[in-house]
């Protein structure tokens, strides 16, 4: 078979290479770096091409495409959300994504994004808490101890200085897994038997549960004044975590209102329910926390710009790292319009020297 040209190859970051990259950089350092990247992109929010994500719903889950561009680079993520997957030994959320050069449309990098999504979601929560949570917050309640949980806890430690994380999940095995994974990482980890117990003394409350229904993880009577809530798990039509009375007492901050009104906690509220866009707080155009007694709520659903920032960060770390493989992905004929001729020449060379079928592990 003819060998592909240089332009045919796209750097591909496999799960194995993403894990190597994360461990090489260090999880907490990477969280801090990602917050810096996402903040920088939030500050130039107006120049991005933005659209609510394109969602394909079924009774048991959703598959979504999340595109954006800053005019120079284009990115998209494919991501699913299937809360019942864990019963079959599969994950609730998996993802992969791509960066491309706007000038030519050619891909720059293809990457796994299941791990990267957990990192960027945690970094975004920590970024929101950095701007909105009460000063000197030291204790976080973490409700929902699944795949995202440890990432959320470590981002809050690295970025906001959280010292204690209080864990609760309806499944004690999830909490036990989280306790094990967070051992020796400089956090005081407290497993709790109820959500109320987890919230004792917490200035930051993070909900990150998965259920394809309107759930009420937090009710109004559970929330005192002067706290910051990150509501991460409610991110689809019909999938929420908070009782709506909490929203009425909170100042609500969102990523992209056009998407959050469809997917976030505020889907329970009228279309004109007041919200503040988080990017405006970061860009100094809107007020964040006004006083110590205020309840701030980050109604997180996950927006394409966060994935774009994370992909660009990974791309910037690839050069000379060896932590990628070249993927033969773009058909690149010697003469650009002779795509058909390229196929014919491949056939001739195949007849001359037949190749064995590619193995399942080859890229
Ligand atoms: N906002 C974002 O940007 C973003 C990004 C990634 C994932 N998510 C969402 O976050 C949620 C969690 O994702 P994950 O990958 O950790 O899922 P997961 O399935 O691995 O974990 C979810 C955990 O929630 C627990 N849970 C379910 N109902 C509960 C309840 N009533 N009280 C306490 N715990 C409960 C489950 O037992 C499970 O351990 C999902 O809904 C996912 O869609 C949001």
From TrEMBL:
GO BP field: carboxylic acid metabolic process
Alphabetical list of InterPro entries matching this protein: NAD(P)-bd_dom_sf (IPR036291), ODC_Mu_crystall (IPR003462), ODC_N (IPR023401)
TM stretches of this protein: none
Cross-referenced SUPFAM superfamilies: NAD(P)-binding Rossmann-fold domains
GO molecular function terms noted in the UniProt entry: oxidoreductase activity
Gene3D superfamilies given in the database record: NAD(P)-binding Rossmann-like Domain (3.40.50.720), ornithine cyclodeaminase, domain 1 (3.30.1780.10)
Family: Belongs to the ornithine cyclodeaminase/mu-crystallin family.
Cross-referenced PANTHER family: KETIMINE REDUCTASE MU-CRYSTALLIN
Protein name: Ornithine cyclodeaminase
Species in which this protein is naturally found: Paracoccus caeni
Lineage: Bacteria, Pseudomonadati, Pseudomonadota, Alphaproteobacteria, Rhodobacterales
């Amino acid at each position: 078979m003819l060998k592909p040209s240089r332009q045919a190859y796209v750097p591909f970051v496999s799960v194995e290479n993403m894990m190597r990259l994360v461990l090489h950089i260090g999880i907490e350092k990477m969280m801090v770096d990602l917050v810096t990247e996402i903040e920088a992109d939030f500050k130039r929010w107006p120049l991005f091409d933005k659209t609510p994500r394109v969602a394909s719903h079924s009774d048991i889950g959703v598959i979504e495409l999340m595109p954006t561009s800053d005019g120079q680079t284009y990115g998209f993520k494919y991501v699913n959300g299937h809360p019942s997957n864990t019963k079959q030994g599969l994950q609730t959320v998996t993802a992969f994504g791509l960066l491309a050069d706007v000038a030519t449309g050619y891909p720059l990098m293809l990457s796994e994004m299941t791990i990267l999504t957990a990192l960027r979601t945690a970094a975004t929560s920590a970024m929101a808490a950095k701007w909105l949570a009460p000063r000197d917050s030291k204790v976080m309640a973490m409700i929902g101890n699944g795949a995202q949980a440890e990432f959320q806890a470590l981002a809050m430690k690295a970025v906001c200085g959280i010292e204690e994380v209080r864990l609760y999940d309806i499944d004690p095995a999830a909490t036990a897994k989280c306790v094990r994974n967070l051992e020796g990482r400089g956090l005081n980890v407290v497993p709790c038997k109820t959500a109320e117990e987890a919230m004792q003394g917490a200035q930051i409350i993070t909900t990150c549960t998965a259920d394809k229904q309107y759930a009420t993880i937090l009710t109004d009577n559970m929330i005192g004044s002067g706290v910051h809530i990150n509501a991460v798990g409610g991110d689809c039509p019909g999938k929420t975590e908070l009782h709506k009375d909490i929203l009425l007492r909170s100042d609500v901050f969102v990523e992209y209102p056009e998407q959050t009104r469809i997917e976030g906690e505020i889907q329970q509220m009228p279309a004109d329910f007041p919200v503040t866009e988080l990017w405006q707080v970061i860009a100094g155009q809107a007020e964040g926390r006004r006083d110590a007694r205020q309840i701030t709520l980050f109604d997180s659903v996950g927006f394409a710009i966060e994935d774009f920032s994370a992909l660009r960060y990974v791309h910037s770390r690839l050069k000379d790292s060896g932590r990628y493989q070249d993927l033969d992905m773009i058909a690149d004929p010697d003469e650009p319009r002779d795509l058909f001729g390229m196929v014919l020449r491949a056939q001739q060379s195949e007849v001359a020297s037949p190749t064995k079928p590619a193995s399942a592990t080859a890229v």
